[in-house]
Fold this protein.
Amino acid sequence: MTLTDTKTTARSQSRTATYVWLVLSVLTVLSWWVGPVRAGAGLEPSVPITVLVLALGLVKCRLVFRYFMELRTAPAWLRWATDGWLVVLWGAVLAIYLW
């Protein structure tokens, strides 16, 4: 690998991290925007809003794992394990909320 290839790869990785950061920021704003408290409504629980915010959190966690904890270059078993852990955790939190 030449010096030019190394610079191009580093620039590409930096650009990807920036795009992922922007997506994470948009998802954070979206999570805030769907909340009923922002609109001045009461603090009544809403199952669809809760499920949506939890799903957005799941996506955000996966993006952080893949792009900021370098799991995209990790062995396949580790990527599958973290994805499985996220799904189990998300399901458990949702089950506790709905129960």
Summary: The chain is about 80% helix and 0% strand. The longest helix spans residues 3-34.
